[in-house]
Amino acid sequence: MYRLDHTLNAVSHPARRAMLARLAEGSARVTEIAAPFEMSLNAVSKHLKVLEAAGLIEREKRGRDHILALRAGPLRQVSAWVHEYERFWTERLDRLEAHFRQKRKENP
Amino acid sequence: MYRLDHTLNAVSHPARRAMLARLAEGSARVTEIAAPFEMSLNAVSKHLKVLEAAGLIEREKRGRDHILALRAGPLRQVSAWVHEYERFWTERLDRLEAHFRQKRKENP
DNA sequence: CATATATTCAACCATAAGGTTGAATATCGG
DNA sequence: CCGATATTCAACCTTATGGTTGAATATATG
To answer: Chain B: residue nearest A102 by CA?
Structure first.
């Protein structure tokens, strides 16, 4: 299966998240994906390779075009991982924050 | 606020995720956190700085000890981000299930 | 005070990441 | 066949990352 490291790393770059967001609107060719970005087409191509290696997109070669499609499967693991920490921001968060605020007040 | 890039980047390293998991069990000093790792204490110290810069842990200096505590707040954004893609993996699952339902119907 | 402990700081090193440019490959449309 | 288009490959550069070792700083303890 896909490794959480790879998924998180792939997704940590804002350009790559933007590319995923674009593909969430529908499949697209490389140049279409590249259009909104300042960087070169080659740079976009590299980012797409990272996403592909992470299993987040899939490529269908149709003639000279490569049509990329979103494959969100690996994100399930991200969701599962972050879910483990949900209770830490829903539970007792205010008490913890207050604790450290108090400590900082005592110790400047 | 904290930036999603920083959070995702901080969390993409398995050692740092392990450190967060340790801190989910309770606050700890640097050497305690470092104990299970092969790497040097200095390397651990660096990882903790990355987590701290991302706002995922907070540090309370008590004498010569630094006591680190989990601060899961920034993970909310990760949860929110990944949630946007939930429908893409449930859709895919639905398609897969439909596929197998069809197979069973064809081949009982 | 002297020494041990906890932690960071600083310098350094190897490799990875993100970008560029230029050439190569493949396909499309006359 | 030819020229335009879509995309990758290859080489290169700069900076970031993750690790090391050794010294510095601060605090605890006999």
So the answer is: B60
Angle at B18 between CA A94 and CA B28, to 5 degrees: 55
Stated pTM of the model:
0.87
Average pLDDT in chain B: 89
Amino acid A96 reads L
The distance between the two most distant Cα atoms of chain A, rounded to a whole number of Å, is 69
Q: Protein B20 CA to nucleic acid C11 C1', in Å? A: 29
Cβ burial, residue A72 (10 Å; 0-12/13-18/19+)? buried
Tell me: pLDDT of A55 over 70.
Answer: yes
Residue A58 makes CB contacts below 8 A (sequence gap 6+) with A52, A68, A69, A71
- Window 24-43 of B, Cβ < 8 Å to A: 24
Per-residue pLDDT, averaged over A34-58, amounts to 98
| Helix residue ranges, H only, chain B | 4-11, 14-24, 30-34, 41-53, 75-83, 86-106
